[in-house]
């Protein structure tokens, strides 16, 4: 479980015995999403997604939506949408060249967190696309391991307001201000609804 870098720091801080005990306990980590995990995951309105490119360079991003935007498909699979972003496709692009991902779910009000590591996949024809208004892609993650860990450093926060930019059925999603900026508005994808609001009036 540990490589040379881990062992070097464990030796420096005299934690090797503890680390070895945790490694023993890690063998008991769940390979399945239990009912309690399902309830926790599907109640979250955000997650943190860690990916890496083909050379192993990491990236971490925030993904948000309404509670339940992450679905537990079965006891070894979750799925969540990728909404319109800045067009860089860093996280989703990484999964195409390196499917290994790590997800962190945090309940800031209840003081609990859950980690899920696995392999991601993207199918352009995923049937779940039709169930997420405004989604461009669906990311599915096959679980390699899932486990809770110590919540003692979780700061307690309370929700003030959910983002108004999360897409909903039969509702026009607001245009973010950056899409109206001089540096961006002439470069928006042809399919982007914001183009209609940023293109010059042809009658002028």
Task: Give the helices and strands as they follow along the chain.
Answer: HHHEEEEHEEEH
Instruction: Tell me the total number of β-strands.
Output: 7
Global structural class: alpha+beta
What is the CATH fold-level name of the domain at 29-148?
A: Pnp Oxidase, Chain A
Helicity level, as a percent range?
10-25%
Distance between the termini: 66 Å
Broad shape: globular
The whole-number mean of residue pLDDT values reads 92
Topology overview:
Elements: H1 4-12, H2 16-26, H3 35-43, E1 46-52, E2 58-64, E3 71-74, E4 77-83, H4 90-97, E5 100-107, E6 112-122, E7 135-148, H5 195-198
Antiparallel strand pairs: 1-2, 1-5, 3-4, 4-7, 5-6, 6-7
Describe it.
By secondary structure, the chain is α+β, with helices and mostly antiparallel strands. The protein has helices spanning 4-12, 16-26, 35-43, 90-97, 195-198; strands spanning 46-52, 58-64, 71-74, 77-83, 100-107, 112-122, 135-148. A seven-stranded antiparallel beta sheet has the order 2-1-5-6-7-4-3, with helices on one face. The longest helix is centred in the first third of the chain and has 11 residues, at 16-26. The radius of gyration is 20 Å and the shape is globular.
């Amino acid at each position: 479980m540990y490589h040379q870098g881990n062992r070097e720091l464990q030796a420096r801080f005299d934690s090797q015995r503890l680390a070895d005990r945790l490694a023993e306990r890690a063998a008991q980590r769940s390979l399945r999403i239990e009912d309690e995990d399902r309830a926790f995951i599907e109640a979250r309105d955000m997650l943190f997604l860690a990916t890496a490119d083909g050379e192993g360079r990491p990236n971490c991003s925030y993904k948000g939506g309404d509670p339940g935007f992450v679905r537990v498909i079965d006891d070894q699979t979750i799925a969540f949408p990728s909404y319109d972003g800045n067009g860089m496709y860093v996280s989703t692009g990484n999964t195409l060249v390196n499917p290994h991902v790590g997800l962190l779910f945090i309940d800031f009000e209840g003081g609990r967190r859950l980690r899920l590591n696995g392999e991601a996949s993207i199918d352009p024809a995923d049937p779940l696309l039709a169930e997420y208004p405004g989604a461009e892609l669906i990311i599915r993650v096959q679980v390699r391991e899932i486990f809770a860990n110590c919540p003692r450093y979780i700061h307690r926060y309370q929700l003030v307001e959910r983002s108004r930019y999360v897409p909903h059925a039969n509702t026009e999603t607001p245009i973010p201000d950056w899409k109206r900026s001089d540096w961006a508005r002439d470069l928006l994808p042809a399919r982007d609804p914001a183009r209609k609001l940023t293109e010059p009036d042809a009658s002028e």
